[in-house]
Amino acid sequence: MKLAYVTACDPLNVRPWSGLPYYIRQSLHNQMVPMEHIGPLVDQSAIKAVCKLKRYYHALGRKKYLKDPEPLRLKSYANQIQTKLNQTQVDIVLSVTHRPVTYLECRQPIVFWADASFAGLLNFYPQYYNLCSTTIHDGHYMENLILQKCSLGIYASEWAAKTAIENYNVDPSKIKVVPFGANLDNKLTVDEIKVLVDSRPQNKCKLLFLGVDWFRKGGDIAFKVAKALNLSGLETELTIVGCQPILDEPLPNYLKPLGFVSKSTIEGQEKLSKLLAESHFLILPSQAECFGIVFSEASSFGVPSIATNVGGIPSAIRDNINGQLFNPDAEIEQYCSYISNLFTNYSDYKKLAVSAFHEYQSRLNWDTSGKVVKQLLEEL
Predict the structure, then answer these.
(1) pLDDT tens sequence across 10-63
(2) What predicted TM-score, i.e. pTM, was given to this entire model?
(3) Are residues 117 and 33 in the same domain?
(4) Which residue of 104, 124, 209, 293 has the fewest CB atoms within a 10 Å radius of its CB?
């Protein structure tokens, strides 16, 4: 079995889309799956001009136009892929997200691995609100076309799979769920994780927020939790990575904003790994999330996650196994009670932290996901 591995970006570049094209490739490469890379794909200048014109046209009506489902753009991608396929011998086409292969016509089975359907994103993510009718039509048409055409559609979460099945009349048997792994290379053993957990202070709570969008990722909620915990008597520190906090008050001394830290450098990876290893909890009460690779990464360091029960997060976090989910409208006191109870019964925290690592080892790692996808591809 030989794959045509299709990515709109460079699959050897760890930066685009949180490193997913790179790590998905690595997961299959580690399973000894032969691959031909098709990508990066080129956005042609004429198509860029069309997208710019449409964006301007729809802005006049105060509606948003998205270029992602633009038919001209996707047909151009399909033509570029077809040209490459004509020059090589492959058995299956695997695309990271479904967009590049939406209009592709080929003899090989088409498979995609994505984190959301268009229906799932619509009026869920901020950039998918107030869309123009053209984008909504193109988005649904694109999704329906690829779901009818593909031999296999892989989603990272049950939520994404459900939105595809319920909105596009697709055969459920060809929809599978395989979670994303951690995009930090962590080779720690369970004994080393126990040492890390034991080294965390029992009289001070260290919370870590990792997100580039303060409000969508729930930074305002994380701040309120840290503030309330300090007021209750539990000394708490909140480290912010990825964005600057937006507050209506002066920056308190227990808030530690570090700005953006890139995973594309060794230094950045080491810094993120150190921050995770030293933290008691990852707190990310997102208002919209397709999956959240950072939850897999937190589990890989024995760090339980505190998050919201929205989108694909429940496929990454399981209550009392590697963290706790709260309703999006949960009171701050609910978060605080959960954290305080674990500090009062600190042996329970240690058990949860080790359990989070076991969840990473068994389910939320790229080796496991790569093996599952390889088997699915072989069955085709």
Answers:
(1) 988 888 888 899 999 999 999 999 999 999 999 876 677 777 878 777 777 788
(2) 0.94
(3) yes
(4) 124
Integer CA distances (angstroms), 23 to 14, 27, 184, 278, in order: 8, 6, 9, 25
Q: What pLDDT sits at residue 46?
A: 64
- Residue 15 sits in a domain whose CATH number is 3.40.50.2000
| Number of continuous H segments (helices) and E segments (strands) in the chain | 13, 12
Residue 293 near residue 183 (C-beta atoms within 8 A): yes
In our burial notation (b when 16+ CB lie closer than 10 A, e otherwise), range 41-63 reads beeeeebeebbeebeeebeeeee
Asked whether residue 285 falls in the same domain as residue 151, the answer is no
How many domains in the chain? Answer: 2
Strand partners, 319: 323
pLDDT digits (tens, 9 = 90+) for 199-230: 999 999 999 999 999 999 999 999 999 999 99
Say if residue 8 is in the same domain as residue 92.
yes
Q: Residue 12: CA atoms inside 13 Å, Cβ hemisphere, count?
A: 5
Q: Tell me the C-alpha distance between 230 and 226, whole Å.
A: 6
Can you say whether residue 238 is alpha, beta or left, with left for phi > 0 and alpha for psi between -120 and 50 degrees? beta
d(CA 180, CA 46): 35
248 & 261 share domain: yes
| CA dist list (Å): 139 to 57, 70, 128, 344, 378 | 18, 8, 11, 49, 30
pLDDT of 314 over the 80 cut = yes
Same-domain status, 264 and 153: no
Its domain, for residue 113, covers 3-181+366-379
